[in-house]
Amino acid sequence: MKLHIKRLDLLHPNAPGNKYFKLKYNLMKAKEVGATTLVTVGGPFSNHLHAVAASCREPEMKSIGLVRGQKPAILSNTLADCLEWGMQLEFIEREWYAQRDTEAFKQWVRETFEMSYFIPEGGSNFLGVNGCMEILTAADKSFDTLAVPVGSATTLAGLLLTAHPRQRILAFAALHDLTLPEKLEKHLYYTLMDAELAAEFAARVEWVFDYTFGGFAKTTPELLLFMEQQAQQGLPLDKVYTSKMVYGLYDLAESGNIGPDETVLAIHTGGLQGNRGLVSTPAR
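^ thats the sequence. predicted structure below, dont judge the formating
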């Protein structure tokens, strides 16, 4: 395997990684509709909340983060940054947070926060996909294979819509969520408005569920050692997404599922800020 890493984590000081692309058109839309407040949701270590708060430091736009669960005695480093940058933090019950993608929740946001624009968790909407369609350059389309870690499938949808038709697409699930292919197809449908075409695009993806290391944000001593070794070689990885993808790529290459001359471009989606305070929960 001839592995290359596209370092989106180095792209932008405010919203590094894929967050820059997911937020780009959402921020433009908020200004277009005359919103004065951005409202979004996330957990206590959310890269998305962090990026939204950072992006609202410069423009005349207030930000409100609806955080999952009760307010802790000590804020995570992520939430402490958000607070310092002016984001208003509102902690909501987990049961209500679970409804965050419903129309009822969105209506509640509109009624509760005046002149607001709602960005779904992770920037996972039509505008987020459109932004992610700008990740690949013409040179990136010369690689045999594209690899990307997947949480909401938003970034994957954007890459898939712009990849070269001959490219192999490896999607490394960050959690063992067997509904991810369905979520991907929905993103594709909302963009293409053609169910048959969306299914054709989705069928190109090779899903990899073997490297979740026990679940979302969970790790093992083996994975942590791998991360340390990669960092020593100049490649910092996050615990939730990119470390599992890169580990998986090397394992697939060793087992022969990726050829020795196969050129692979792996997308580094960022998320490094979460390493500061995210407690490693070992897989059991």
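Residues 2-11+135-282 form a domain with the Rossmann fold fold (CATH 3.40.50.1100).
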